[in-house]
Amino acid sequence: MSSGSQAILFAFQLMTLMSAVLVAFHPNILYASVALLFTFLGVACMFIFIGADFLAGAQVIVYVGGITILILFAIMLTQWMYKATLRDVRTKILLPVVACGLLVTPILLKTTRLIADLGPLGTAETMTAFSFSPKTQVIGQALLTSYVLPFEAVTILLLGALVGAVWLARPQ
Amino acid sequence: MNIISFLTSYHGYLTIGVCLFILGCICMMWRKNAIGILLGIELILNAAGINFVAFSRFRTGAIDGQLATLFVIIIAAAEAAVALAIILRFYRLKETIDSDQANLMRN
What we know:
The complex is a heterodimer of chains A (172) and B (107).
Chain A: H1 3-25, H2 29-49, H3 53-78, H4 94-118, H5 124-130, H6 136-144, H7 148-168
Helix pairs in contact in A: 1-2, 2-3
Chain B: H1 3-7, H2 10-30, H3 34-60, H4 64-94
């Protein structure tokens, strides 16, 4: 990877991390959800840099265009914008941090040992064959051949979830 | 190895994934607001997606990881819709979305 594209990717990674910190720690839930939008955009850019162009598009359409807007709608429907209850975080931060450390440390140890066991990264041929070819055709063919069962299952799940959401949010 | 060439490699993607996962867990445990908990869940799902794509790019060279991420994105959309409908319903019932007030199974 050339140093110019490395610098661009590094900038997007920094944007992802800093806005994720804002999502986790900003006391105002409205600002946190706007920061979540930038996290999603940064993750989409990171997808582009490892050859997942279709996923980057799907990420922008579903997350940035759909979920973030839905969350903003829900915030503005349920609370006034600068009401005191909007700034509700627990006072004790130590317990979540310690719990996450206990949760993540064994995962990290196991993963580093696993990566060391698996040996070097993929071969040069697979890398160049995989790298930056368009993925839409490959993904479409895989969805309708070897992945057709999960595809249909997730279709039914999405239909059921959306009908259930409309039924739950109906007026009394 | 300087930090830029580390972060833009395979290990950098895994590092970003772990950081997003930890931040999502902290967000889920720390916030009282039900929508804030939903934000943490979205961060965790994105971390899983980054890991899938990085493994499929750097480890196998096949498309399977990207398909797994595609299904994660679809399921996240369904989950967000249902969660927000539940939150709206809860707000109508209790006039708040503080998750400490959600202590009834009926209604």
